[in-house]
Amino acid sequence: MKISKEVKTALLALLAIALLIFGYNFLKGNNLLANNRTFYAVYDDVEGLAPSSPVTINGLQVGTVSGIRFLNKTGAILVSMNVQNEFQFSKTSKAQIYGGGIIGGKSLAIIPDYDGPMAKSGDTLPGEIDEGLLELVNDRLTPLQNKVEKAISSTDSVLFAFNDILNPESRQNLKQSLANFNSISEHFKNITGRTDNMLKNNEDKLSRTLSNIDKTTANLSKLSDSLSQVDIAQITRDLETAIHDFKSIASELNQGKGTAGKLLKDPTVYDNMDRATRQLEQLLQDLKLNPKRYVHFSLFGKKNKAYEKPKDSLK
């Protein structure tokens, strides 16, 4: 059977179209001859993920991202991926977008989970986004940047305040204060040296003084032992007895009992003593004025003299 040129041209054109489609999909990472599985994941933001980005499981590339499109009017994005590897994982396995370095782009990793029913082609996996290097650095550097800016601002304020404080007059006062401090330090050094010399020169005296203190402490200890042996209870009882006796005497004096009580309380006793004192004084006065009346020596007899009443010196 002879094939015409038109048929050959048509076959070549179809073959070229098939090769073009196959090559295009192969360049996109889709092998049309392989038994691929297609999975989906939904994201709010794909973080720069692009078609033909690698799909990995535990770091091994098992497929590529085949398509990215909007899912609905709310802005959700549907990502489809082809997985050529027959590695099994459950429907709860997560499709995680990761990467995003300074040079490399984003990739898609399937975090396998083995609990529950196994995933089949056409299933939608839970999607999540892992922080990339740049995002992580930005998250860490942003607080540090804020702190550095605050520190710089505080440092500027401190420097301005310091410059305001350290005017020429303040600098001069500071220099004078440092000079005074050096002088004080020198005086203190001299005093310390003198104190050391004094301690060295009086070392024997200090030793004797400390020895005397030790002896005094020992004597005080002996005195404390002696005091501890004193019968304080007996002394207290004797003192209480003496106080009781003194109270009894004072009570009897207040009640006018006894000679001393009558002397304090009975006015008659006082009047009698007062009269006796007056009479004794008059007798002594008369004895001084008329001694011959009481003592008289005469060879010729006694001649009585008329009695003269003594003057009452108490009136």
Automatic annotation (TrEMBL):
Domain Mce/MlaD, chain residue ranges per copy: 36-112
Protein name: MlaD family protein
A Pfam family that the UniProt record links to this protein: MlaD
InterPro entries per record: Mce/MlaD (IPR003399), MlaD_Phospholipid_Transporter (IPR052336)
Transmembrane segments: none
